[in-house]
Amino acid sequence: MGKNRPVIVLTQKDLMEANCLDMSNVISVVKKALIDFQEGKILFPDKISQIFNEETQDRINCMPATLLEEKICGVKWVSVFPRNPVLYNIPNVSGTIILSEIVSGQPITFMDGSICTLMRTAAISCIGAEYFAKENSETIGIIGAGEQGRMHLIAMKTVRPSLKVCKVASNTIESEKQFEKDMKGIFDDLEIIRCNTNLMEAAEGSDIIVTATSTQAPLLKADWVGKGAFYAHVGGWEDEFAVAKKADRIICDDWEAVKHRTQTLSRMYKAGELSDDDIYADLHELVVGKKSGRLNDDEFIYFNSVGLSYVDVALSYVFYKQATECGKGTAIDFQGLSIWDAFKK
Predict the structure, then answer these.
(1) Sign of CA dihedral 9, 76, 92, 245
(2) Which residues are within 8 A (CB) of 264 and not within 5 positions of it... i.e. 6 or more apart?
(3) Is the pTM of this model over 0.85?
(4) Are residues 276 and 339 in the same domain?
(5) Is the pLDDT assigned to residue 73 strictly greater than 50?
(6) Which superkingdom (predicted)?
(7) Whether residue 112 is found in the same domain as residue 225
(8) pLDDT computed for residue 103 by the predictor
(9) Can you spell out the DSSP letters for 125-144?
(10) What DSSP state is assigned to residue 329?
């Protein structure tokens, strides 16, 4: 570090070929980042969000953070356009990540941010499940059959291998069929049940419930959630207020970040129906042992994450090292020539 060097450009293909899809490894990296944050080893500025449509929540987020021990500063530039799958048949989330070293401030990599976002989001939820889902959980109900729904199944199965049944409900039968096809190709010990767009069927009786949709509407109803369930809220506004009010404990990845966003809990806070005292813990407090996990099999636990830039930066830095160690990526010399030479005749 500390000298002019080529910037390594890493595509999705590069990251996949560098074995960056190992969920167990991702979970370990995320846990370390949470511990480092608790120990004051991370700079975590506020996220900047530019919202272009309040109704649909079309937005682009700028998410910076610095890993002080690693001397790495990064930013994720991520777009969230919920209508993309319907309007353009493309994912609703896309992004890029830039990392720089902080010895001389030089950039070291420009990489795809979609894989990092996809895996980090699911890993955060499954770490919540590791502490709060019943150890013998057998049934998971997933509302939303898109990329996050699929990755959440992979993540949850990693921490709760006891899962035997996955019920999936989406807004179309076609997306449920695609979910079933993709997941059956990954898990041969898991029964996939398509709920034919019946959201209640997916939620009722499930030990783990995941809502991973792009809809800004209270889809999940409190009456559908049974005792002992662990609920992972992934999107913006996906459940009615009564779901959170029914919970025995509410946990966030970071409550201070969550309460200023557009999630269900954020809306409740702004409406005066939820206070700071109603939040049991942030996830890093569980990982370092400051707070306890599930107390009994009857507790209903509500978990909400909003996304933490320092986790993205930590994960992307590990991806960068994995990729460069196996020779992946394209080296580009952005600053190799003196601009003054261009003025010479």
Answers:
(1) positive
(2) 218, 233, 237, 238, 239, 240, 241, 243, 244, 304
(3) yes
(4) no
(5) yes
(6) Bacteria
(7) no
(8) 95
(9) HHHHHHHHS-TT--EEEEE-
(10) S
